[in-house]
């Protein structure tokens, strides 16, 4: 059974950088796209971007200037970096497998506050 | 980007009744890339349907998806108590991938 376990800091100050990592167990990174999605009361579910095992990325244009995805095939994990965080970036962040996502991480509540 | 409009915003029904949820896209979506999710409080979304009409693994057959082009529907044939939740549609055929704002299915 594939499982996604994510971790990272949940409380940030404005202008700081968000770093989240998602490790995949019970399966390999394989042929899939690996996604990051966030959810906030104000904006609903928002797709951030995706990466595959070759390191090819696809970002949401609304975040493209501030986001970077990376992947570590040896550790079976992938990561999200979001720069210059503001209060508007406060949300629950999820990692997930695929564009139509059949497996999700547990979510990380990220709060940006001074 | 493709905007997905879900209706109704809230649907109040009783267990045993039939639920019909709508998702309308601002431009045509390939049926291969239309998904439906269920989300309960404090949980990640759960994939119900992909490819517009294929049930995901372990999803009961009371859930069915249909539609094409810009109009898609999720039908729950007979509501069980555990079905009361928020439902989202998503398109992942055109980047950026987008979600609807959801339909809240509540107990009447």
Q: Would you summarize the structure shown here?
A:
Chain A is mostly beta strands and 114 residues long. Chain A has strands spanning 3-8, 11-12, 18-25, 33-40, 44-52, 57-59, 67-72, 77-82, 91-97, 103-104, 108-112.
Q: What would the average pLDDT of chain B be, to the nearest integer?
A: 97
Mean pLDDT of chain A: 96
Low-confidence stretches of chain B: none
Rg calculated over all Cα atoms of chain B: 13 Å
Order of helices and strands of chain A: EEEEEEEEEEE
Largest sheet of chain B, described in full?
7 strands, mixed
Instruction: Note the overall shape of chain A.
Output: globular
Helix content of chain B: under 10%
Quaternary structure: heterodimer
Poorly predicted regions of chain A: none
Q: Number of helical runs of chain B? A: 0
What share of residues are in beta strands of chain B? Answer: over 45%
Describe the 3D structure.
The complex is a heterodimer of chains A (114) and B (108). Chain A is an all-beta fold and 114 residues long. Chain A is built from no helices and eleven strands. In chain A, strands 2, 4, 5, 6, 9, 10 and 11 form a seven-stranded mixed β-sheet that branches. In chain A, strands 1-3-8-7 form a four-stranded antiparallel β-sheet, with no helix packed on it. The mean pLDDT of chain A is 96. Chain B is 0% helix and 55% strand. In chain B, a hairpin with a 3-residue loop joins strand 5 and strand 6. The mean pLDDT of chain B is 97. The interface between A and B is medium-sized, with 19 and 21 residues.
What are the main properties of this structure?
heterodimer, A: 114 residues, mainly beta, seven-stranded mixed beta sheet, four-stranded antiparallel beta sheet, globular, B: 108 residues, three-stranded antiparallel beta sheet, 55% strand
Helix and strand arrangement:
The complex is a heterodimer of chains A (114) and B (108).
Chain A: E1 3-8, E2 11-12, E3 18-25, E4 33-40, E5 44-52, E6 57-59, E7 67-72, E8 77-82, E9 91-97, E10 103-104, E11 108-112
Parallel strand pairs in A: 2-11
Antiparallel strand pairs in A: 1-3, 3-8, 4-5, 4-9, 5-6, 7-8, 9-10, 9-11
Chain B: E1 4-7, E2 10-13, E3 19-29, E4 34-39, E5 46-50, E6 54-55, E7 63-76, E8 86-91, E9 98-99, E10 103-107
Parallel strand pairs in B: 2-10
Antiparallel strand pairs in B: 1-3, 3-7, 4-5, 4-8, 5-6, 8-9, 8-10
């Amino acid at each position: 059974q594939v499982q996604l376990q994510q971790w990272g800091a949940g409380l940030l100050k404005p202008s700081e950088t968000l770093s989240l990592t998602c490790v995949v167990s019970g399966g390999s990174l394989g042929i899939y796209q690996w996604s990051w999605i966030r959810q906030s009361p104000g904006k609903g579910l928002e797709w951030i971007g995706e990466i595959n095992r070759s390191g090819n990325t696809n970002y949401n244009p609304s975040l493209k200037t501030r986001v970077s995805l990376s992947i570590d095939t040896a550790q079976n994990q992938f990561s999200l970096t979001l720069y210059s965080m503001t209060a508007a970036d406060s949300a629950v962040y999820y990692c997930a497998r695929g564009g139509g996502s059949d497996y999700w991480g547990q979510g990380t509540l990220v709060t940006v506050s001074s | 980007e493709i905007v997905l409009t879900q209706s109704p915003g809230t649907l109040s029904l009783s267990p045993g009744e039939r639920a019909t949820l709508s998702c309308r896209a601002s431009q045509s979506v390939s049926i291969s890339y239309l998904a439906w999710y269920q989300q309960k409080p404090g949980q990640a979304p759960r994939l119900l349907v992909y490819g517009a009409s294929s049930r995901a693994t372990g999803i009961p057959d009371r859930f069915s998806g249909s539609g094409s082009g810009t109009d898609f529907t999720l039908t729950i044939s007979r509501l069980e108590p555990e079905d009361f939740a928020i439902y989202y549609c998503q398109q992942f055929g055109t980047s950026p991938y987008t979600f609807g704002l959801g339909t809240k299915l509540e107990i009447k």
